[in-house]
Amino acid sequence: MAAKGRRAALPHRSESSSGLDKVALYIRVGHSLRNRISQGEWEPRAQLPTIEALAREYGVALVTVRQALRLLSAEGLISSTRGRGTFVCADTEPAAHSAGLRAAINDRLDLPTNCSIRILKRTNTSHLPPHFVPPNAGQYPKYVAIEKLHLLEDEPFAYMTVLVAEELYKTFPKGAERRSKILRLILDGGRLSLRRSHIEMVVTYADDDMARQLRCSPLSALVRIRTSRVDASRRVVLCHDAYYRGDRFIYSTVEEGVELGRSSGVVLPAPRAIRNV
To answer: What band does 14 get if pLDDT is binned at 50, 70 and 90?
Structure first.
């Protein structure tokens, strides 16, 4: 629970095109409470603080907290009983406790048995968006673009657009992308050697279409992972944008024997020379 006397963090208001500056305060409080439940701060069947306590913690009016709690109640995350208080529903599993989500997100090759893939669309293209092409990398003549959802027990947790070189896609078993991650299909085929990977992770927010696909509220927090994989021919063979629901995202890794003092590989621009005036 948040430390006494400190306000809980709300999604930051921004003057950018994200639209967060236009989000009603009760929705922002609702996002915060949802994330706290997701991260296991309140376990299933646990009682939430009173409306008065939450209002003090967030520095908002009582009506704002009531509206936020109604949002979570409509989503089936909490239930309220007059005279008893507000409780996390018994069947609400915090993302932090979900072994299935951990495996599905952190294993680059395989999905657990209770996960599935839903293909939304396949298209062909001759050009990759520039953000997928790292410096000193080339492109294949054609790519197959696959839009898909990854689901855990029929609940979507990730939306992805994957582009794979067409000549490689044609070697996959028919319909295999409905059952396996693309990188698994590539490596199982043993037809190429990956030279390097470029991976970028940022926090963004769901627009109306993304919210509909992922069954979350508009402007809910998402984690976008953008990946480009370059093969031995120095061409992008596979790239994707993966959008994970922020309340269902778990990144987990183990480091052993790591020299933390060494460079992470991030290249910073050289400082500009100072000219004498």
So the answer is: very low
Query: Under CATH, which architecture does the 100-248 domain have?
Result: 3-Layer(aba) Sandwich (3.40)
pLDDT digits (tens, 9 = 90+) for 207-249: 889 999 998 878 888 999 999 999 999 999 999 999 999 888 8
Instruction: Say if residue 135 is exposed, middle or buried (CB neighbours under 10 Å; 0-12, 13-18, 19+).
Output: exposed
Torsions phi, psi of 52, nearest 5? -65, -40
Provide the CATH topology of domain 20-88: Arc Repressor Mutant, subunit A (1.10.10)
DSSP the chain: -PPTT-PPP-PPP-SSTT-GGGS-HHHHHHHHHHHHHHTTSS-TTPBPPPHHHHHHHHT--HHHHHHHHHHHHHTTSEEEETTTEEEE-TT---GGG-HHHHHHHH-SS---TTEEEEEEEEEEES---GGGS-TT-EE-S-EEEEEEEEEETTEEEEEEEEEEEHHHHTTSPTTGGGTS-HHHHHHHHT---EEEEEEEEEEEE--HHHHHHHTS-TT-EEEEEEEEEEETTSEEEEEEEEEEEGGG--------S--TTS--SPPPPPPPPPPP-
User: What are the residue boundaries of the structural domains of the chain, listed by start?
Assistant: 20-88, 100-248
In the prediction, which pLDDT does 176 show? 94
Entry pTM: 0.73
CB 102 within 8 A of CB 94: no
Higher pLDDT, 9 or 125: 125
